[in-house]
Each structure stands twice: as C-alpha cells, then as structure tokens.
Amino acid sequence: MAIFDELKSVGKVLQEAGKIEQYQQILETQKDLLGMQKRIQELEKENRELREKLEIKENLYYENNVYWVKKEDGSKDGPFCSRCWDKNKDLIRMRYYSAQKWSLTHYDCPECKNTYLA
User: Fold this and answer.
1) I need a labelling partner for 13 at 20 to 30 A (CA). Which of 30, 36, 52, 62 fits?
2) Percent of the chain having pLDDT more than 90?
3) What is the pLDDT of residues 68-78, one digit of tens each?
C-alpha cells in the first residue's frame, strides 16, 4: 500500500535524523494501520458470509423432513440435514445410499448421522 511505503520513507528519514521519538510514532502508526487493515478484512469476510447465509435462507425450503435450496433455474439442490440447519444454521448435504436388496433408499447426514428415508 502506498501509505505504508510513505510511512516507511518518513520513518527512515526521521531515524537518520536522530528523531527517535517521531520515528517511534511512525512505527506505532504503522502498527495501528496494520491492525485496522486486519479488522477491515475480518469484517469483509463476515459480511460475505452473512450475505451467503441470507441468500441461502431466502432460497431454503423444507419438504419431506429435509431442506432443499431452490436454484435460479427452478431446480432444487439437496437434500440438506434439517437437524443441522435448525440447530446450527449449518447447511450439511446428506449422503445418498441405496440398498437394492431391500429396495431401500435413504440419505444420512455425515455430521449428526440423521437419516431420511426417501
């Protein structure tokens, strides 16, 4: 970033001129700016995650004991575990199993082991 380069340049001049107190102020300012930059990145990440959850929530619907996400083309994605979503707001895709021997099809959640018979 340009501001860090400028502070570094000013700091070098101050250090060479023997202005230790002012040089230390520049170092503190750099430290503060780095902290602010980190906080901004954290907030941007949190904002992105909240927007994604909001979008999911707007397109999420409950059907046959599981959740599905309605896609833009009208199709659905899922199924997703109802327990994991209801308890933690975690959208966990359920795994598909088919036992042809008993003509049984089911889904299970890899996280909480919840089972849904299809």
Assistant:
1) 36
2) 41
3) 999 889 899 99
